[in-house]
Amino acid sequence: MGSFLFTLFKGRKVGTDEFGNSYYEERWPRREYGYRVRRWVNYKGKPEATKVPPRWHGWLHYVTDQLPGEQAFTPQPWEKEHLPNMTGTPGAYLPPGHVRRGGQRARATGDYEPWTPE
């Protein structure tokens, strides 16, 4: 409830991203003494930080003062679509040899020499 009231009374909505998250900044910022304008996000649905797109992340963390809609943007060919954090789910990454993948690791290739004290 506190976050809702803070946003209602002190926030000014500046935009929304493709996931439905809303971005705000202080309506009446205190610019004296070097204070920065406070910025925050209200998540749509369950709060998950990985749902903040890179361009909005840059704005939230003061990398740029331009809102993502104000600047020209062309995605790089190596950029991938958003994937949610899969930790703790059946879709989580499990390395080879993990117990949940059968627990069989590849044997050492012979380049390992154990240390023996002399």
Structural class: alpha+beta
Shape: elongated
Q: Mind telling me the C-alpha Rg? A: 23 Å
Order of secondary-structure elements: HEEEH
Number of helices in the DSSP assignment: 2
Helix content: 10-25%
Note the main sheet. 3 strands, antiparallel
Please report the total strand number as a whole number: 3
Task: Tell me briefly what this model is.
The longest helix has 9 residues, at 2-10. It contains 2 helices and 3 strands, in the order H-E-E-E-H.
Strand and helix map with partners:
Layout (H helix, E strand, L loop, with lengths): L1 H9 E6 L5 E5 L12 E4 L11 H7 L58
Antiparallel strand pairs: 1-2, 2-3
Keywords:
118 residues; three-stranded antiparallel sheet; 2 helices; 13% strand
Report what the structure shows.
The protein has 118 residues and is α+β, with helices and mostly antiparallel strands. It has a domain of 59 residues. The chain is built from two helices and three strands; from the N terminus they run H-E-E-E-H. The chain has a three-stranded antiparallel sheet with strand order 1-2-3. Strand 1 and strand 2 form a beta hairpin. The longest helix has 9 residues. The radius of gyration is 23 Å and the shape is elongated. The N and C termini lie far apart (67 Å).
